[in-house]
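**Sequence, structure tokens**
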Amino acid sequence: MSIAAQVFGEKPYKVHMTKQKLTLGGLICFPIITFYTLLSRELVNLPFLDDYGAVLGFLNQWTKLHSTREKSLYVLTAQHNEYKTMFANAIFVMQYKLLGHVNFIILGALGNAFVLLLFVVLYKMWMLDGRTINNRLFLFIPSAWILFQLQYYGTLNFPSAGLQNVPILFFSFLTIYLLSRRETGAFYFAILSLALAIATSGNGIFLVPIGSLMLIQFRRLARLVPWLLVSGGMLAIYFYRYNFSSSQANPDHSTISSIHRLSLTYALSFMGSSIARYQSYVAALVLGICLCAILIFAVTDKFYLKSPAIFYSILFILVTALAVSAIRSSFGMTQSLASRYRIYSNLLVILTYFYVAGWLQKYIRGRAIRFITIGMIATMVAVFNVASNRAGYTLLGMRKIELIDGMRRLEHGESPVVSTGEVNNENPVISRQRADGIFVPNGPILETSASLHIYVPPVF
């Protein structure tokens, strides 16, 4: 022990470090706690929009099947629009078998929980970054404030969307993270995660070429064989009895013809939607272009060698953006700003920030300048978080009110259509959604679910 340590002791230093970590941990946990507290207040045991077909309609049909083989096959082959959601189907069945009925509060909370799991993977990627980065935990704080906010409320408290849109990102990022590690065990868990990603949503298929590219880059060619074998098996399962005439966007309903509708402008707006409101896509388009420009610079900087997990996660989002543009661009550019998919833009901003934060440290030497720069970023992120929570929480609350009112009207035999004169303090987003009839309960599906004792809505 040194003389200084004997005289002054090491305890004050340890206490200081503990306080510092607690402070940083608190700054990370605060938006997480706020996020889940706000969500819990607006959970309601009612189906919404796609929940009727994807959850209740699926279980109505599943319970009518007799043999275990038929039921298992239906979990794997049931299709909702363009998607095979095998993972979500399995969860719906497990809940029904355990509880004897469907509870949308539990399903919604489970979908919300995947955001936290996704955040853990982001943290592991950031800590695995091969660059020399000082104050790594401090620099990670903005990612919590960007991710845990209610801008993408359209995916939250919404079982059919929440158990597809969020888990696919978790499984995809987890697969990429595990592939970036050297351990044999990590590779086999990556294969399992790949299978779950493809079972969750169609864009999990993009992991097949991305993972192959990673294995070739790492010169782990022997691992390509099991990777491609499992990939081929999952693709065979996914496309078994796949309905290629299920597109919502094309007049001929062909998913294959959607490829011709691929729009770079739509994809860029999709990637930059974090910054935009729901009316104009210009700001989103500008941000999307900026993010792509940074990615091009990152390629020239050989970022794929220094932090492959972060780089290939960015690539996954870019490929997904192009695919979404092919499937959805015919609905119009404003659809690129839909809240249901904004989590992709939020994640792209976080991953790009990871690259820029590490890159800037090569040029910002002074400790004071570094903290001022990060402080400015943190301030902007906090404002973004507060503004997003305010708007998202308002829309979540109004959605809950509309769902309850719609179910009440159905119970009392009233008209499901709400006239403008009946509504006070009109919100343009809710007004547009009401005009589209998305809050109107699906009576026939509810009657079938009730007769099969799958789900009975609360009495209002």
User: Anything to note?
Assistant: The radius of gyration is 24 Å. The longest strand covers residues 79-80.
